[in-house]
Amino acid sequence: MPILETHNVCKQYHMGQVTVNALDGVDFGVEKGAFVAVMGPSGSGKSTLLHLLGGLDQPTDGEVALDRNTLSNLPDRQVTIARRRQVGFVFQFFNLIPTLSAEENIALPLIIDGQRSRDYRARVDHLLERVGLTERRKHTPDQLSGGERQRVAIARALVAEPAIVLADEPTGNLDSKSGDGILKLLRQLCDELDQTIVMVTHDPKAASYADRIVFLNDGQIIDEMKLDGGKDAADILARLTELEL
């Protein structure tokens, strides 16, 4: 069974007298250990979908199920706990606490969850090593490069050992070299740790690291593309052109 799925998900926003259909009947599933990219033009519903998948927002209609639990059936407190323990978020602009060190930012979700330092110290140490920041553990975000900050954000997303990591344009604020490093790290996490990842991106090169691409337009899934290792950014760009996205 998919670890994450949606059934006929719709999301409407009311702007004065105008109703905007951000998502319109989306059926979507992600298997455990899969790396899925979501692509589409601005306003297609990509970020809205990611927010619904992570329980940051509720659909107007339809269902979102995470690890077989329908989020709309849970009380708000249980949704918050599920989001904290089962979903890791990676954002374009890092969203790190500027006064905390790298290791403190990584540990923050566990601190909020009420866990004790002695119970998670080894996990934080392991993640610092995994993302190559052991020697930078005491540095605050202003002392780190953009790529290093995003690595801290990825480690923070992983620290609670979540069922799924949701990444919203994780390389959009990085130079090409740093971005490549982040994408390779995400791919390694999927291959070596069986980590499930859903990534929103507009970049064909970033999407080429995924196993599957879902194309959104006007709030609907209009096509999918499986990547078997023989396709690259040029193939993805050709499909985008074909779909007029």
Task: Give a written overview of the molecule.
With 245 residues, this protein is an alpha/beta fold. It has a domain at 4-92 and 163-242: P-loop containing nucleotide triphosphate hydrolases (Rossmann fold, 3-Layer(aba) Sandwich). The chain has helices at 46-53, 76-86, 102-112, 117-130, 146-158, 176-193, 204-207, 233-242; strands at 4-15, 18-30, 35-39, 61-66, 69-70, 87-90, 164-168, 196-200, 212-217, 220-226. The strands form 2 sheets. The chain has a 6-stranded mixed β-sheet. Helix 6 links the parallel strand 7 (164-168) and strand 8. Helix 3 packs parallel to helix 5 (146-158) and helix 5 (146-158) packs parallel to helix 6. The protein is globular. The two termini are 31 Å apart. The model has no long low-confidence stretch (mean pLDDT 92).
Quick structural overview:
With 245 residues, the protein is of the alpha/beta class. The chain has 8 helices and 10 strands. The protein has a 6-stranded mixed β-sheet with strand order 6-7-8-3-9-10. The protein has a 4-stranded antiparallel β-sheet with strand order 2-1-4-5.
How far apart, in Å, are the first and last alpha carbons?
A: 31 Å
Describe the biggest sheet? 6 strands, mixed
> Helicity level, as a percent range?
25-40%
Instruction: Note the beta-strand portion.
Output: 25-35%
For this structure, what is the CATH class of the domain at 4-92 and 163-242? Alpha Beta
Give start-end ranges of low-pLDDT stretches: none
Shape: globular
Helices and strands, in order, run as: EEEHEEHEHHHEHEHEEH
Number of strands: 10
* Rg measurement, Å: 18 Å
What is the CATH topology of the domain at 4-92 and 163-242? Rossmann fold
On the 0-100 scale, what is the average pLDDT?
Answer: 92
Quickly give the CATH architecture of the domain at 4-92 and 163-242.
3-Layer(aba) Sandwich
Strand order of the largest sheet: 6-7-8-3-9-10
Structural class: alpha/beta
User: Helical element count?
Assistant: 8
CATH H-level homologous superfamily name of the domain at 4-92 and 163-242:
P-loop containing nucleotide triphosphate hydrolases
